[in-house]
Structure formats: structure tokens, C-alpha cells
Amino acid sequence: MTPPQIPGTRIRTRRNDAAWEVRVDRLQDLRALTVASVGAAALTSLDVVVNRWHPPASGWVGSPRVPGLREIVVEPKGDGVRVRLTTTGEVDAAVLLAGCVRTIMPVARDIGPMLTFAPGLPAPAGILAGHLHDTLVDGESRDAHVRRADVLVLPNDDPVGADPHGPERVTTVRISEDTWSRDDLLFSVCVDPAVQRPMGRRSVGATTIATATVTGGICTIELPEGRLVLGRSVTASSTKALRSIGAVVAPDLPVTLTRQLNACGVVIAEDAGTLPDPDDALGWQVRSVHERRHALRQYGPTSTFDAWPTVSIVIVTHRSNFLDHVFTQLRGLSYPRLELVFGLHGESVHAARAAELAAHLPFPVTFVPVDAEATLGEALQTCSDRAEGALITKMDDDDFYGPEHVWDLVLARQYSGAEIVGKTLDWIHLVSSDVTVFRPTYPAEKYADFVAGGTILISRADLAEVGGWRPVPKSVDRALLDRVLGDGGLVYRTHGLGYVYVRRSSGHTAAVKDEHFLTKVAQTHPGLLRHEVFGTDR
To answer: pTM for the complete prediction?
Structure first.
């Protein structure tokens, strides 16, 4: 077959078409080329140059995760990067290109149904390039004795999806230039989580109100430092320019641009009078986070596949006096695919009371007795071993969690591709002083080496790969972060909204004194700040 022709890409074939040399302008072009190359060639060598690229963290290199890999070379190339992959046997061109994508773009480990890609997919399917591991080509006979695919991804005009004698699969997703469909349901997928995302948007400062005009379908936003021409879609470079913008006032903004800007954290309003007051920093953040959640959930690709991962909440406690509090927090969580693994650390925990409270939860609960002599790290590992969710998130027994807390972590994992995600430590209730402080000292929405320990989320597979929780009595969160970072993984810190860290004068494993949390404070609220977004209004 002839290599596909994709704008922004150039391909030269060698060795009887078994080797490709590819040059692309941007990572986005490489992703579009990947899905367009299904069945185009069987390669043993691929050399890709991306003209414009920078790593998400200094020194980071991803894993291609392709079969028969013999050699991988990653090296700087001008303002971009060069990736060369060679294999011991022939591999579909699309699979090898997807390996290049995963090498230079963080892609969270696949934990949902396996996607099988058919030839002829249009450019919008490039959103899925990092998750391409399996292709279906004409005349293929492998895996005839098992179900061939979980989800078969087809171009909209491919007849195989309607063929009852076609490859066995659970469901079929069809993609056209304009719509995605599954089981006769139509979806508007216009948000690419790797592009239209809130990365770099800090907890404070994004309150500037910009105006926009639309002429001939082209949107122009008036920024303080000049004009930003968006065209018909928000690009990666546009996302960076929008980080300080709180809202765009435009009465006739196209629906696609509205959703993409929302996913970046920009509030869209027809009238400036509907926006929060200029001094209401919390109001601005609540509005921004609410709209980015909605855009990423409803208009990203995962909604089409109905593939939101299962999440196991792991809690370990030795304090019966916090049972009522922690189960109140759990009852308020809105994520639809939860289970709870609850560690009863020592005989002092009132197991009967815990079971009584758990009966009111809308998701399954597993109680795990843990010997009092076990360290906190050992207790967490014992509970994690009993978890059945694809993802594991740690919660503490005395902190506050808003209804959307788990959603925030799942979405951040999706758009960051990091092995660990967690929240920033923005909101702290100091019990001894009876104040809640807003202390945004750790920048939000960035790759980092620290997240709030009571918000850590990691996949079961990634946790096992780094050896699990270390068997230490304290600083278990720091120990896990160090393990992942030391293994070459990424940690991503999302916004702190929906989480209040409760700091007590005694009982914490952390060594930092209370006075530390009264420095660099942006706001102080008397008592516990009551707001539904934090789960403190229950």
C-alpha cells in the first residue's frame, strides 16, 4: 500500500517498504498519521523526526510498548526530537507509529477494553493514537479461537461493522469527520484531552476577562498582550496563551470552540454580568473547574467508549472516632464506578460501627483487618492487594472531599498521562487555630514531584510495577512518589479544589509544624470553610 498522505507529514520508504523515514511538524500530525496508517505497511524500522517538541519533564522518555522491539533511539533534533525504533519482525506501521507517540507523549497505561483499529480511519481518530496497540487488516486469521476485539474502531463507511460474520467483538465504534457513534448512539467528540486541557492553569490569577469576535468562522480573542487567532480549533500553543484568562465574553462563539475553551479552564459567557466578582477567587475557580470537568467528561473520547475506569478507594484507620466523618465523605462522592477497601488497623477500630455505616454507601465495601503491629505502608499494601478497581486512590480518614473529587483525579490522569496524579495542597484547616487557609504555594496543573498524600491515585498495574507501597511507618506517600519518579514515571498535580487537608496538632505522621501552614497564605477563613465543593457542607 501507498503510505497515507497527511498534511504536515513527509514519508520516505526504504528496504522494499519495510522501513519508513517520517518527518512531521508537530506531535498532532504524528497522531493523525498513526491512525491513518493501519494496514499501510509491515515495518521492521521506523525513523521519526518531530520538528517541534519538548519533554513534559526534564529527561523524561516514555515507553513504546510494541512487540519485538530490538532497538530504540531517542535524541534531540534541532527544536524537536528524533525517535528510531527497530524490531525483530514485521509490525504494522500504525502500531510502530503509536509506539513513537507513546515514547514522546505521556499516555496513561491502558486499563479499559482493548481497542482494535481498522484501516481508513479519518484524522479525528488521531485522538486515540497513543492507545493503538492492535489492528485488524484484510485476510488476517490470528486469534480465531478467541473474541477478536473488545471494541472495534472503524471508519463510518466501513461495511465490516454491519457484517454479522465479521470479527467477534463486544461493541463497535464508528468515527467520521464530524461524529462518533456506538450502538446507534451519537457522540460529539470535539475535545482532545492531550491538547485542550487545563495544564499550566494555576489556582490563582486566571480572572482576566477577554472578549472574542467571530468572523467567517474564525475566532479572534483580544488578550492583554495582543490578539489570539484561534481559527476553528484550540491548538496546544493557544492553550498556553489562554492560561491567565479567566473568561471569554462572546455571544456567538461556535459550540466546538466553547467546549474546547471550557476544557482548558476558560469560562465562556455571553454577558460579563454573569461572571463572578473580580475579587472572588474561589468563585472563579469553582466556575472554571466545573466547566472543564463537564467538557472533558462529555466531549472527550472516553464517553463514546463508556470506558471510565473502576476506582478502588483505599482507607486505613486506627481511629474509631473518625468513622462517622469518613463515611459521610464517602457517601457524597459522585464517581459512578467505585469500591471501598477499608483497612481496620488494629483491634481498637470499632468494626461493627464501620459495617453499620458502610451499609449506607452506594458501592461495594471490603473490610480488611490489619494487625496493629503492621506499618502504615504494610497496611496500605494489604488493602491494595484486595482492591479490584483498575485504579487505586488513597483517602485519609479525617480530611474533607468534595463530590467530584475522584472525577478530578481520573480526568487529570487522562489528560496528563502520568503514573501518579493527586491534588495540590491549597486548602488547609488548622484545627488548633480554627482557621481554613488558602495557601497556593505548590503550582497546580503541572508535572511535579509532590502531591497531597490524601489524594494519590495510581493504577493497580503501575503500583505493582514499582513494587507497591513501601513498608514504612510514615512518609508512605513520599516513598511511593520517589519509587515512581525513580522508575522514570511521571507525577502530575492537578488543582486543589474539592479537597481540604485537616491539620491537627497531634496524630499526624508528618513532621512539619502547624506554623508552617500559616506562612505564604493568600486567604484566611475563620473556622472550617463551609462549601459544597469541598464536602464541608454535609
So the answer is: 0.95
